[in-house]
Amino acid sequence: MTAPWAVVTGASSGIGLAIAEHLLKDGHRVAAWARRGDRLTELVERYGAEQIRMFQVDVRDAAAVQAAVAELTRDGAEIGLLVNNAGLSLGLGPLDEGDTGDWHTMVQTNIEGLLACTHAVMPGMRAAGRGHIVNIGSLAAEFPFLGGNVYAGTKAFVHHLTANLRVDLHGSGVRVTCVAPGMVRSEFAVVRFGGDQELADALYEGIQPLTPADVADAVVWAHRCPPNVNVNHIELMSLDQPYGLSLSRRKDAR
Ligand SMILES: NC(=O)c1ccc[n+]([C@@H]2O[C@H](COP(=O)([O-])OP(=O)(O)OC[C@H]3O[C@@H](n4cnc5c(N)ncnc54)[C@H](OP(=O)(O)O)[C@@H]3O)[C@@H](O)[C@H]2O)c1
After folding, report:
1. Considering its fold, how many domains does the chain have in total?
2. pLDDT per position as a tens digit, 85-127
3. Residue 93 has what DSSP assignment?
4. Is residue 151 among the annotated active site residues?
5. 58 alpha carbon – ligand 1 mean position (Å)
6. Beta carbon of 148 within 6 Å of any ligand 1 atom
7. Residue 251 has pLDDT above 60, yes or no
8. Mean pLDDT of all residues in 46-70
9. Is 84 a pocket residue for ligand 1 (Cβ < 6 Å)?
10. Domain carrying residue 41
């Protein structure tokens, strides 16, 4: 029998890329999903097509998600791990200054995309009587910060869904974990600030944020635990970060 696949969504940068690489180094076969195919191609070239398969998938497209899962499991292969990592934050201001298009993108990606991936993968795990779903949440789900509104709401959904999935999957042999990081230096802030790299760099001035590898370590640790152990929730943050993201300390960040 072939080794099960680990599906990592949002594997083209930041935390997802680090998780994919940690899993590859740990000997897993990884299915790397994202929209940017050029980034995924680089990953395949680095690790070889035996160990990694790329899927240029937009998680907001439920039909494409279903098709990717069907393609990956066509030969009867199992998906042993799903890391629901793809996500983003857009916009900075209070809700009344928000852009409804940004809200839809966040809800469609962080909530509906995660649901689509989970819905597509769960039946196979249930049938196999094993598997692990790791959802990447956020400290933002628990602690309000200026401009967090809709993004933080989407991550609160992820935290609650993770706990509810455990109930849905009770007795199935499938484990469910939420990993909730504080500030991590990735492309996240650049995306949030509409591509403004300088503003994103300034956010981390004078502090040492978490690295994507720190979060990947937590995911891999939770996955390595024995099959009878369910790690429910891991919250990790930089020693330099107080509770709640202090975006308000920057006047030019509004
Ligand atoms: N950085 C932080 O401070 C922080 C803190 C807590 C939680 N998080 C969470 O960590 C996760 C990863 O973020 P990151 O920090 O690694 O940011 P990042 O470097 O911007 O990575 C985001 C990843 O999500 C993918 N993605 C975005 N929209 C997608 C879509 N519609 N379909 C498929 N893939 C999509 C991106 O790939 P493509 O653009 O190629 O599709 C990219 O690979 C997110 O869920 C985020 O909310 C981040």
Report:
1. 1
2. 999 999 989 999 999 999 999 999 999 999 999 999 999 999 9
3. S
4. yes
5. 12
6. no
7. no
8. 97
9. no
10. 5-253
